[in-house]
Every structure is written in structure tokens, then in C-alpha cells.
Amino acid sequence: MYEVKLASFEGPLDLLLHLIQKYEIDIYDISMKILTEQYINYIKNVDDLDINQHGDYLVMASELLRIKSKTLLPEAPMSEEDVIEDPREDLMRQLLEYQNYRLYADILKTKKEQHEKYFIKRSNDLSDFENAKQTPLHLDLSELIAAYQKAKQRRKTIASEQVSVSRDTYSMEDAISHVTTALKDKVTITFDDFVTFSESKTQIVTLFLAILELMKNHIIIVHQANEFGEIQIERGSQYVE
């Protein structure tokens, strides 16, 4: 006598699918004799069977006995118009639907486990930008990029035909220091103040990135006084002399 636990199953259909797989029963041509006998034996070996808690298992047992008895009864004479109904059809439909339900449940469980492996970055706090002093005209990042492209084009226009190759040592720290130092003497400076047409392309790119970094850290504020006007750079809330 071995101990059997119904808690391992989610219901009678779950138990039936387990028995069908275990005894290799064709779900499309169910052997009611084998399935009913194995199901009844399984129920008999449950040592803690509670009719209030496991009543649905007993209902399925009676249903299996009913279907089995119908398959054993001799067929009544039928006319050519009569349609032969398989007493196992409804049980087969329920088992197939439940099998599909379990399949999709397993797929969703796998997706959930995969999703739990990813960490979702929290959104940045932009309240400082929302509460910052509003300028007369909002400056879009695309306009800052356009100014960068304009400076680069001007550098290209006056470039000498003579080409020389040298290592560029102008770093982000140099560019940041360049901007913050310029603001010590002036309340407002412009982007063009830093472009003297003698800088290399790398220096212009580095200066542009430095301005973005300073904006991000609230060390400078960038805006325009009017549309298509010069880009104005002022001291931000975190600017320290």
C-alpha cells in the first residue's frame, strides 16, 4: 500500500491527464476500461480523502463509470439516418481543452520567469527641470545640435588645404573648465564664443558634449532670447566659482 496525495493535482482532469500519459493512453481513442480502473485505484489509495474537499474527484469517478458502462452496452438497432454518438466525446473534449490550458499556462510561466531576470530602470527625476525658471523661448535639443553642425560647417569652410596629423589632447575636463571659467567673468556667453575656427573637429565635438554634461548637472542653463537667435549660456543652480 503506497501513500497517494491528491494535493499534487489541480483537479480531476489534471489527474486524468497524468494517468493518460503514464499508461500511454490515446487521448483521441480513450480506453475507458484502463483509464477508469487506474483512476478508481488511485482514488482508493488516497488516505486523506475528504468528500467535502475532494468531491469533484468522486464526481469524475462516477462519470467515468457511466461512460464505461455505455461503451459496454450492446448497440441498439439504428436506421441509416441515425448518427452514432461516442459517449467518450465530451470527456475527450474536456481533456484536450485542459491540456491546451496547461500548455499555455506553462508558456506564460516561462515568460514570467524570463521577465523576472530583467531589471527595469526607474525613470529619472525631472522635477528640477519642470520647476526651473522658464526662459522666454524654449530651447530644443535639436537647435543646439544645429548650432553644433553650423560651427562644424564653418570650420570646414575655412579649413586649409594643407593637412597635418597630430594627436588631439583636448579632453572633456578641458572643455568643461573652458566653459565654467568663461562664466566667471561674464553673466552670459554664447556657443559661438568658443568657436574661433581654429579648433579641430574633435575639439568641437568635445566642447558640445561638455555643454550637454554641464546642462545635465544644472551647472549651466542654455536658452535663446529669440527664434533662430544665438544660443545663450548662463550659470545654473549648481554653478560654483
Report on the architecture of this protein:
With 241 residues, this protein is mostly helical. The chain has two domains: 6-115, no CATH class; 127-155 and 167-235, Structural maintenance of chromosome 1. Chain E (Arc Repressor Mutant, subunit A, Orthogonal Bundle). It has eight helices and three strands; from the N terminus they run H-H-H-H-H-H-H-E-H-E-E. The chain has helices at 12-22, 32-44, 55-72, 89-115, 127-131, 141-157, 172-185, 201-216; strands at 188-190, 220-224, 231-235. It has a three-stranded antiparallel beta sheet with strand order 1-3-2. A hairpin with a 6-residue loop joins strand 2 (220-224) and strand 3. Helix 2 (32-44) packs antiparallel against helix 3 and helix 7 (172-185) packs across helix 8 (201-216). The longest helix is centred in the middle third of the chain and has 27 residues, at 89-115. It starts with 11 loop residues before the first helix and ends in a 6-residue tail after the last strand. The model has no long low-confidence stretch (mean pLDDT 79).
